[in-house]
Amino acid sequence: EIAIAEAFGLDYTPPRRVSGQPTKAGLILLAAGSGQVLHSLGLAYFEKAGDEMVAAVPSYGSIERSWEEYGGVVHRVPLKNYTHDLDGMLKKVHAGTKMVAICNPNNPTGTIVPYKDLEAFIDAVPKSVLVVVDEAYVEFVADDNYQTSIGLASTRDNVISVRTFSKIFGLAGVRVGYAIAHPDINQKLSKYHYNNGISLYGKVAAEAALTDYSHKHNSRQLAIDVKQYFEDEFEAMGLEYIRSESSFMLVNLKRDARPIGRALSQRRISVSDAERRWDMKGWMRVSVGTKEESETFITALREILTTTL
Ligand SMILES: Cc1ncc(COP(=O)(O)O)c(C=O)c1O
């Protein structure tokens, strides 16, 4: 917690531990991946059948799925120009709304919500509504209009920023994530975590990753370069794509993407079928690889598109 607070310049005092009493949560809550935070958000905020939440579609969708499983109602607001339609989402917030989920940058589109729009949205929702900002891919963002929600989460009592070491730091298998939120919010979530759910090894790896500036810089730069390469190649192939601030990109093959996904898979290249996952007919989501892997993907895609169709 202290290393995270230092990394973001947050004024943080670890909660005092009193022997024999449950540990109180502070501004930073460690967890076994950001997935654990998203999961416990559903558990902690869902109270009764019919409780409402608002989310965008297509988006990551993890809280929404558990919310519905518990018997809650999810208002899914379609993206506008592939990004969150905050005005549309605001219209779906009523007295019974418990939570709004914003994935920023969004998975699968890689689009972002500019800070001033996010702040205006948070100002506009009732204080009783928790605004969840999932920033799993935040470290990849290059757009100057972007600012993290940490400043909002550390000063308001209805905003939570959810972060992970799984993406830019490449530690997905180690399972370390965290939330920054008012201690009362983190306290509610921590009831569903056994201790913080992470091992000593996870803690050590995460702490080392936080200050491994060259790894972070190189991974980010690689993503920026590869996305530029993808854009150039997709344009040359006449394919539409969505400019992404994340580590993946959506491309519109304008034909059934499934046989193409299968042909890529036969060459040991794995992509996401955006039709199956997000109902985006003809689209495929490809993640940034090393330069060589990314070139292999483009060469294979070119061949498959010209030879099989
Ligand atoms: C937007 C988003 N949030 C959260 C997660 C969960 O990641 P983890 O639990 O590994 O931190 C993912 C994983 O793909 C994701 O894409």
UniProtKB/TrEMBL annotation:
Family annotation (InterPro entries): Aminotransferase_I/II_large, HistidinolP_aminotransfase, PyrdxlP-dep_Trfase, PyrdxlP-dep_Trfase_major, PyrdxlP-dep_Trfase_small
Domain Aminotransferase class I/classII large: 27-301
Extent of the signal sequence: none
The species this protein was found in: marine metagenome
Name listed for the protein in its UniProt record: Aminotransferase class I/classII large domain-containing protein
SUPFAM superfamilies registered for this protein in UniProt: PLP-dependent transferases
Keyword Transferase: yes
Pfam families recorded: Aminotran_1_2
UniProt keyword Transcription present: no
